[in-house]
Design brief:
With about 140 residues, the chain is an alpha+beta fold. It has one domain. The protein has 2 helices and 5 strands; from the N terminus they run H-E-E-E-E-E-H. The strands form 2 sheets. A 3-stranded antiparallel sheet has the order 1-5-4, with no helix packed on it. Strands 2-3 form a two-stranded antiparallel ribbon. The longest helix has about 35 residues.
Length: about 140
């Protein structure tokens, strides 16, 4: 595997994990929002990854064999909790307010996992760089 491929794969992994972290942070920021209907309530966003295989390589886009990319960002279809607050301005005809379906603790776990995956990609690229530099030093002797 070439140095360029290693760096490309690591770079794509870091980009994908950045999107995952941003989605989780956005979910946490909207965790306390409320709406007058279940349809209008904020739904957590989930990042869906897709691996890039040799048969799917697109050189125009700069894909590398074995990489990963974000296929889509989908809404979590878990139900939005209803809270009975008849005096709330957003309450529906039955007195319910619908909150987001975000579970903050799950989002924090997702951020931690994405952060560790990002760090692994950084370490892989740093290791490849060190090996390449060591090879160059050995060839100079």
């Amino acid at each position: 595997m070439s140095f360029e491929n290693i760096m490309g794969i690591a770079g794509q992994a870091m980009d994908a994990q950045t999107v995952r972290i941003n989605a989780a942070v956005s979910n946490i920021a909207n965790a306390d929002t409320q709406a007058g209907s279940a349809e209008d309530a904020f739904r957590a966003k989930r990042v869906i990854f897709k691996t890039i295989l040799a048969s799917e390589v697109n050189q125009k886009r700069g894909d590398t064999v074995g990489g990963v990319r974000v296929a889509q960002i989908a809404e979590d279809m878990a139900p939005s909790p209803a809270v009975y607050e008849p005096n709330h301005p957003d309450a529906d005809a039955n007195g319910y307010v619908y909150t987001s379906n975000v579970e903050v603790m799950s989002e924090m776990v997702d951020i931690t996992a994405a952060s560790r995956s990002y760090e692994s990609a950084v370490e892989a690229s740093n290791t490849a760089k060190r090996l390449m530099m060591r090879t160059i030093e050995l060839l100079k002797k």
